[in-house]
Design brief:
5 strands; 4-stranded antiparallel sheet; homodimer; NAD(P)H-dependent quinone reductase (chains A, B); Nitroreductase-like (chains A, B); alpha+beta; oxidoreductase (chains A, B); about 210 residues; Nitroreductase (chains A, B); globular; EC 1.-.-.- (chains A, B)
């Protein structure tokens, strides 16, 4: 079912680090990029809204669009990676929600009562929500899927670099999305690490610095 | 180094689903919860700011605090899980940033020039940023760590349920954090799934619905 080349969880998660220079001879097939996205969207999301949208940029024309709003600092990844995945949060994901659950009901996975309860409990929360809440929820959902994408890429034998350094105001429009609806979450460069590259492994704060018990 | 009970990546990631009813006889040792958080914070973060903060609630007194702002719908997880991890974004994480990189420099991992470049490039972006950007960045960072926490929990033999349904305005204050500084991102119930429980496995949209190539 999956085409994982590395199925060792410890190596996938704890061995991940950001790669900024990729092997330019490596081209990931679209079918495999799609598989990695399919792996990623098994992530959970608030009320199962799945408020994520992936634009996989793997053509020279697509990369030219990214060049128009990327920070100079991140151009090496743009130039050398096989693809850049632009991840957007869909603030109107709730509009597809009714059809999703009606489908689950039609497949007899839930009863009519459960269907009604789900639609009557959650849908109004979103239909009546302000832009700030819809944006925050879409960003959290998309980030969960983003993390899974980076791990799935490693399982497929690739490395990644998540990128926040671009002009977020221009991202959606440059890629043909409605900027009122889609909020940029992050870019992820994906490819095979250049074997000559000497990326430093980032230091983390000690766990004691970021945890407390109550 | 790690105490993973399940190191099969496919089983960890693709086998994860939300568990809403846990085995109340299972109590996860704090040392193991800390290990899971340590695994989780290998996640990447924007500019390595690591803007996450974990409050692990595993006492009756702590759970009483959560009861004061959780939605009724999520009380079964609160009652039955071994712990609830409250994840907050730290909007002032940049205040620790200089010390972190000076430490990396002192360990001779980067040159003085690299240190200066990093501090002069990124720190001003955050020192001059508005609250909205700091909040968004902290939420994205924390969500990446949250996803890794849920996967790490599975590698440790546990299950999770990410929870958005609580009064976000009350969360920080109820747990003794400064609500101006810390933004609530999500709650994650963790424990061993109740063997009698019949949680439905959520349906996802097809990958073709959420991906496009450019």
């Amino acid at each position: 079912m999956t085409n994982f080349k590395n199925n060792d969880f410890e190596s996938v998660m704890l061995g991940r680090h950001s790669v900024r220079k990729f092997d330019t001879s490596v081209k990931i097939p679209r079918e495999e990029l799609k598989e990695m996205v399919a792996n990623a969207i098994t992530a959970p999301s608030a009320c199962n809204l799945q408020a994520w949208h992936f634009i996989v940029v793997d053509t020279p024309e697509g990369k030219d669009k990214l060049r128009s709003f990327f920070m100079k600092f991140n151009l090496p990844q743009l130039e050398t990676s096989s693809a850049i995945v632009m991840l957007f949060g869909d603030t109107l994901a709730f509009k597809k929600y009714r059809a999703l659950w009606e489908n689950i009901y039609e497949q007899k996975q839930i009863s009519k009562e459960e269907l009604d309860r789900i639609l009557n409990t959650f849908l109004p929360l979103y239909e009546n929500a302000d832009k700030q809440l819809l944006t925050a929820d879409a960003m959290v959902d998309s980030s969960l899927a983003a993390m899974q994408f980076m791990l799935a890429a490693r399982a497929h034998g690739y490395d990644t670099n998540p990128i926040a350094g671009y002009d977020a105001k221009k991202a959606a429009t440059a890629l043909g999305l409605d900027p009122e609806r889609y909020v940029p979450v992050m870019a992820i460069a994906v490819g095979k690490a250049d074997s000559q590259s000497t990326d430093i492994k980032s230091t983390r704060y000690s766990v004691d610095d970021v945890i407390e018990f109550q």
